[in-house]
């Protein structure tokens, strides 16, 4: 009766099996005169065996197994004449699935803080590995606003400004989402207001898009440059507000901090022009009140009045016309 297979390396998804280690059977002559070996695996539900390998080798690796699961195998030895015998059954369990960066990201995304701390303390997972969307765990935590103090010290050991490999960095995400405590924490650990994403925008551009005034106010008090220009369109954060949300509150904060209401982008457009094009009536009114110049022309020679007419911004056009009436007329010199 043959001996049961010998168990070799076992992982969470594979088991190595060996047999005929002493090579007692000499392989001489044609192959059809050799002993043939088969490995059979038990179906735990049916208690029947199925062949998973047959041939003349003395080793087989069973793959695609489930972690932490018990498997049972037996060896079938068939002689050239067709006679066969079975070995006793060998039982072996696969190991626990090793902790990977996927588990790490999953723990962060569902805010499983206990598991996250356990993984971090294990020290076997690289914390700066991005997920399938290109976000590191720190970036996800910043965007979601997680602030548990014993988690962040480990996360911030990775580069905070990872815009070179991702769309944006952790500070930008926290600013956009309005998580002031996270913003403060990242700043204390070296996050820079000057870092840029792939589009050339800074954290203040992201904060302007997010529209969270407490965050923007704190950023300004912390020394963030108000009229910083992106490297794509040449837009300042005020331009972003004019194009995106049209928020009067955010625009007021920026203007009070010194934002230029007549700044011009690469196409010669001003915040007022952008606000007119996007039909942000209240913002148009605010910009006019703050000294926005209605006479400025873009590089194509068009001004806010032409833009309002072409895009049929009747309410905005009325505001512009009303402001024009209030302007002092220029005296003619003869």
UniProtKB/TrEMBL annotation:
ANK repeat residue intervals: 199-231, 233-266, 267-299
All residue ranges annotated as the Fibronectin type-III domain in the record: 1-98
UniProt-listed Pfam families: Ank_2
SMART domains for the chain: ANK (SM00248)
Record GO biological process: regulation of apoptotic process
Main location: cytoplasm
Record keywords, A-Z: ANK repeat, Cell projection, Cytoplasm, Cytoskeleton, Nucleus, Repeat, Ubl conjugation
CDD domains xrefs: FN3
Record function comment: Through the activation of JUN and AP-1-mediated transcription, may regulate apoptosis.
Subunit structure: Interacts with COPS5; regulates the phosphorylation of JUN and the transcriptional activity of AP-1. Interacts with RYBP; may prevent the ubiquitin-mediated proteasomal degradation of FANK1.
Protein name: Fibronectin type 3 and ankyrin repeat domains 1 protein
């Amino acid at each position: 009766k043959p001996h049961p297979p010998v168990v070799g390396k076992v992982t969470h998804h594979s088991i190595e099996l060996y047999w005929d280690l002493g090579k007692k059977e000499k392989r001489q002559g044609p192959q059809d005169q050799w002993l043939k070996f088969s490995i059979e695996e038990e179906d735990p539900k049916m208690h029947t065996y199925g062949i998973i390998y047959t041939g003349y080798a003395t080793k087989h690796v069973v793959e695609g197994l489930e972690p932490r699961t018990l498997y049972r195998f037996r060896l079938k030895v068939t002689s050239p004449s067709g006679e066969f015998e079975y070995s006793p059954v060998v039982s072996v369990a696969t190991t626990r699935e090793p902790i990977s960066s996927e588990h790490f990201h999953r723990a962060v995304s569902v805010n499983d803080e206990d598991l996250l701390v356990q993984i971090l303390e294990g020290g076997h997972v690289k914390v700066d590995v991005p997920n399938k969307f290109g976000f590191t765990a720190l970036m996800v935590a910043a965007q979601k606003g997680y602030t548990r103090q014993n988690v962040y010290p480990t996360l911030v050991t990775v580069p905070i400004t990872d815009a070179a490999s991702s769309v944006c960095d952790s500070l930008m995400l926290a600013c956009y989402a309005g998580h002031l405590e996270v913003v403060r924490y990242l700043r204390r650990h070296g996050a820079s207001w000057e870092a840029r994403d792939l589009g050339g925008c800074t954290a203040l551009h992201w904060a302007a898009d997010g529209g969270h005034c407490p965050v923007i106010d704190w950023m300004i008090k912390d020394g963030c440059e108000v009229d910083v220009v992106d490297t794509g369109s040449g837009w300042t954060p005020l331009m972003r507000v004019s194009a995106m949300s049209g928020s009067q509150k955010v625009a007021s904060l920026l203007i009070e901090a010194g934002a230029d209401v007549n700044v011009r982008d690469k196409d010669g457009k001003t915040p007022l022009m952008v606000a007119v094009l996007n039909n942000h009536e209240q913002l148009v009114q605010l910009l006019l009140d703050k000294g926005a110049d209605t006479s400025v022309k873009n590089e194509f020679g068009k001004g806010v009045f032409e833009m309002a007419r072409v895009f049929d911004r009747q309410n905005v056009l009325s505001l512009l016309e009303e402001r024009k009436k209030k302007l002092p007329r220029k005296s003619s010199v003869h």
